[in-house]
Design brief:
Layout lengths: L2 H16 L3 H11 L1 H4 L7 H8 L9 E5 L7 H7 L5 E6 L2 H10 L5 E5 L5 H7 L5 E6 L10 H12 E11 L4 H5 L5 E7 L6 E7 L2
Parallel strand pairs: 1-2, 1-4, 2-3, 4-5
Antiparallel strand pairs: 5-7, 6-7
């Protein structure tokens, strides 16, 4: 039986308990918090695979995800992570945090209700010093004034040397926030998504 079939069956099973499937919860999250969710359509598999491709999973002990929503990326990060690695998923929407806790029965996942701007404190509270990788789909172009630059600064501080800030966006504004903190920023564009999106990898040297 394929992993995608297992995933779909699990989603349907959990949907019956949670009062709706992933798309329903994603849409509800968008309606309640449109500035923080940014899209009504979860990311495509093409975006997920391309975004995660540069990650050195064998040497990744702590992966952090901003705005995990209903776990579209979370599922694939967990599938790739080592058995002794940890994924901290940070979301300001408590509905999404509860959804993740119920959907994923994986001890490596720590869903946290909080702001990405406080990532250093959140990592410390979870018992870690620095992250290997941080992934974000937060809509930086629509965040309140000052929040985007603060998140970029905090993320750079939270990453270990050699780590990376992985960002997927519909607009390229986030690069302006990343540039002061990351000397090397790789970029790409993925058309197979609704809508197509910019991809950035900021490396901490």
């Amino acid at each position: 039986m394929s992993a995608s079939w297992d995933e779909a069956r699990r989603d349907r099973r959990y949907a019956r308990k949670a009062g709706g499937g992933p798309l329903w919860h994603f849409l509800r999250g968008f309606i309640k918090h449109p500035v923080m969710v940014g899209s009504i359509i979860p990311s495509s598999r093409a975006v997920i695979d391309r975004m995660l491709e540069p990650v050195d999973w064998a040497n990744c002990k702590l992966f952090v995800e901003y705005g995990p929503g209903v776990g579209t990326f979370t599922e694939h990060v967990l599938r790739r992570m080592a058995p002794d690695a940890t994924l901290i998923a940070i979301d300001t929407n408590e509905d999404f945090v509860r959804y993740l806790r119920g959907k994923f029965r994986d001890s490596r996942l720590l869903p946290v209700s909080g702001s990405a701007a406080d990532v250093c404190q959140i990592i410390a509270d979870c018992g870690f010093e620095q992250a290997d990788y941080v992934l974000s789909g937060l809509p930086f172009s629509t965040l309140p004034a000052g929040v985007g630059p603060k998140i970029a600064e905090e993320t750079a501080e939270a990453l270990r040397p050699g780590g990376a800030f992985l960002v997927y966006q519909f607009k390229a504004k986030v690069r302006d926030y990343m540039a002061p903190h990351f000397d090397r920023i790789d970029k790409a564009f993925e058309w197979i998504n609704i809508p197509p999106c910019h991809l950035f990898w900021g490396w901490k040297d």
